[in-house]
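Form P-L/3: holo structure prediction, ligand adenosine-5'-triphosphate.
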Amino acid sequence: MNLTDTLLFASGSLRGARSRTLLMILAMSIGVAAVVILTALGEGARRYVVGQFSSLGSNLVIVLPGRSETAGVNPGMLLGQTERDIVLDDAQALLRSTAVRRIAPLTIGTALASHGARNREVVVLGSTADLLPIRHMELAQGQFLPAIDMQSASPVCVLGAKIKRELFGSEAAVGAWLHLGDRRFRVIGVLASQGESMGMNTDDLVVVPVASAHMLFNTQALFRVLVEAKSRDLIARAQKDAEDIMMQQHGGERDVTVITQDAVLATFDRILHALTLAVGGIAAISLSVAGVLIMNVMLIAVAQRTQEIGLLKALGAPSSEIRRLFFAEAVLLSGIGSMAGLLLGEIGSAVIGQFYPALPVSAPWWAVLAAFGTALGTGILFSVWPARRAAQLDPVLALARR
Amino acid sequence: MIEFADVSRIFMVGGQEVPALRNINLHLVAGEYVSIMGPSGSGKSTLLNLIGLLDRPSSGMYRLDGLDVTTLDDEHQAQVRREKIGFVFQFFHLVPRLSAAMNIELPLILAGVPPQERKERVGQLLESYGLADRAGHRPDQLSGGQRQRVAIARATIMRPAVLLADEPTGNLDQTTGKEVMSLLEQLVGQGVALILVTHDPALGQRAARQLQMVDGRIVSDTRNISQA
Ligand SMILES: Nc1ncnc2c1ncn2[C@@H]1O[C@H](COP(=O)(O)OP(=O)(O)OP(=O)(O)O)[C@@H](O)[C@H]1O
Ligand SMILES: [Mg+2]
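OUTPUT (holo model):
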């Protein structure tokens, strides 16, 4: 019996038991589709985070107060010394590094914002003119903070899109006055709506000069300093320089943490990749469940088709031929099932993509390949036993039965 | 052509030995027309299964065309069945989902005959068995007589030397039974050996040689002088 005849015969018996075949294909395709959709989601999440990071700015080095625990125990802490704040002088000093293009000090706090009768609690971000290019922000109206010395306060502010909407409605905001706490600021610009970006929604923000923010919150301490390296290659040097400069500034003590966005990104990338793998693995278990189902149904098929098997033997089919026929059926089933599953998965991913346009949902090629391979593999593996059962059937008994 | 030397077949049923055949010695020549009769449970089907290589003897020797076939492996036994032996069953045993033509084609497919030749041979056979207009019908769309003719066509498409028929008319009425028998006897006329198991003495008498079985033994072996 040649291969085409084997496949034709197998597909014939599959068509002969329509509901059984459809059921098995369904089970198989759901398994495959689950792998495809879940890994697509995981991969989508990973790419979403990566995308978010790069929208934060490129070649970023971030200086934050305090030594992170991963760097070991701070001897200063043991001696009861308090960590020193990062102040504007420190931020200014960072510009001494030749690897640094520009910096943006950040101070964060909340204040009650009011305009006329409307008021609400807002997040106030104190920074400098360079924040705009460093964070890749865009303006909708007016202008951003003036390029003044970072030590000098100025009663101006830039509104996030949502704040502008809520406090001014359709009224013109630029040029108007806004009360933040007990101070007055003139609105000089409105940010373009960007939506959520790494937990900070620029739509929900009021940006003021950093010195003004310090006065508003009565503090000297910076929340963090964003440092942009001159190029990708200079990120490492900028990080090292920042650490050295901060040590000098703080009397020889390493009491700040300097992280690169790349390192954070790599960590997220690793975590999310692992997550995708785990989720894909769980989905693959549903595939092996489909495999067990196939085995079960094939065993039933063998029982139902004893007569046919006995007949084929009487007509001169050796046991190996019978085994091949059942194998071919399993391969066809799992092949068609995985094809249908891939299709289903792609459709499912596309539908999810429709609902969450921000998420780039698409299954990675390795997951598609793995799902297809696992489906075929389980289909074949789980048909070994039924096929052997069929091949070992005694033709006399099979034919004696009516 | 077929030689049984001291062949026994003992079934084990729940730890107990059930001898279905006891020390059978038998010699059949090519083209012979033999009927096997005897009471139910006397071992007729068991003997036929042994001849057809569907079963192996518990002891003794079986030679087919001079070759000891009891020691052949599964692959070679299947080949012998394919090339030399045709089966006709009481319950037809057609594959229900396949058309008449495809049922007849099955042995050719198993033997790896190319499709073109298959079509020709099946077409010829359907024609000569008067089934040409039934080629595309499935078994459940055929009458009992037609089904058995399809089964006989399937058994003969490989032009076997021996045709084994276990009560081929057992499920048919008198007239269709006669039709089927004349078809089988026509094949004997063409040189095929026919071994026919039957309960009908009238049918059995038609064979040139008649075996009587009782309790796993051949108790009489007579030849019809009139036909010889
Ligand atoms: N697979 C088997 N397992 C156990 N015993 C069997 C088996 N096949 C046949 N036998 C026994 O062997 C004996 C002969 O059976 P066989 O089927 O050859 O009889 P038979 O002459 O064909 O009868 P019938 O005319 O009813 O078809 C019987 O006693 C039967 O019970
Ligand atoms: Mg019988």
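COMMENT: Residues B 44-45, 166 surround magnesium ion (ligand 2) (CB under 6 Å).
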